[in-house]
Write a structure and sequence with these properties.
The structure holds two protein chains of two kinds.
Chain A: E1 4-7, E2 10-13, E3 19-25, E4 31-37, E5 43-51, E6 54-57, E7 64-66, E8 76-78, E9 87-94, E10 103-104, E11 108-112
Parallel strand pairs in A: 2-11
Antiparallel strand pairs in A: 1-3, 3-8, 4-5, 4-9, 5-6, 7-8, 9-10, 9-11
Chain B: E1 4-6, E2 10-14, E3 19-25, E4 32-38, E5 45-51, E6 56-58, E7 62-67, E8 72-77, E9 86-94, E10 97-100, E11 104-109
Parallel strand pairs in B: 2-11
Antiparallel strand pairs in B: 1-3, 3-8, 4-5, 4-9, 6-7, 7-8, 9-10, 9-11
The chains are: A mainly beta, B mainly beta.
Chain lengths: ~110, ~110
Amino acid sequence: NAGVTQTPKFQVLKTGQSMTLQCAQDMNHEYMSWYRQDPGMGLRLIHYSVGAGITDQGEVPNGYNVSRSTTEDFPLRLLSAAPSQTSVYFCASSYGGGDQPQHFGDGTRLSIL
Amino acid sequence: GESVGLHLPTLSVQEGDNSIINCAYSNSASDYFIWYKQESGKGPQFIIDIRSNMDKRQGQRVTVLLNKTVKHLSLQIAATQPGDSAVYFCAEGSGYALNFGKGTSLLVTP
């Protein structure tokens, strides 16, 4: 049982480039979410999904897009990377949203030059 | 807006001692709270959770206490071990998401 798998683990981009951060879970969880973590801060919610075909914005959605075509996958897209998006990105999944433990992947460390 | 905060950013304890990590929350309507442990280079790992209809819950070497009157949450770790060194986050349920505090770094010294 792999849990939540994120790829890549590390990435360096130039300003203006685009990329997709991948997230997959094998626990048949309906709820998935993306957070970013900046130094000395907690995790902030970017986008979330309560099931296939349904997504919504979190606290810091600007500059990011998501889609949820399957239960297992929830990719996060940066359309035009900016230095302010340098961060560690975590994907999580759970049976519920704010009333259930969320299971996290090990993160993608992203640097924008 | 609502916020979740921690009283201390760092905590140093000796191996074998008990550790207490505190957390304040401001949303009196929150009914779900959770503690995570995060080791360097890893994602947050679930430790223990508690719902607002309880004031105490115990796990293996960990206890979470909830005081709804003063909106305070604490995590107690018994007989702290070197492997407990990590950053600990509290979070409160907020709609479809968890609202995280900034974290407390726990350092266990021999």
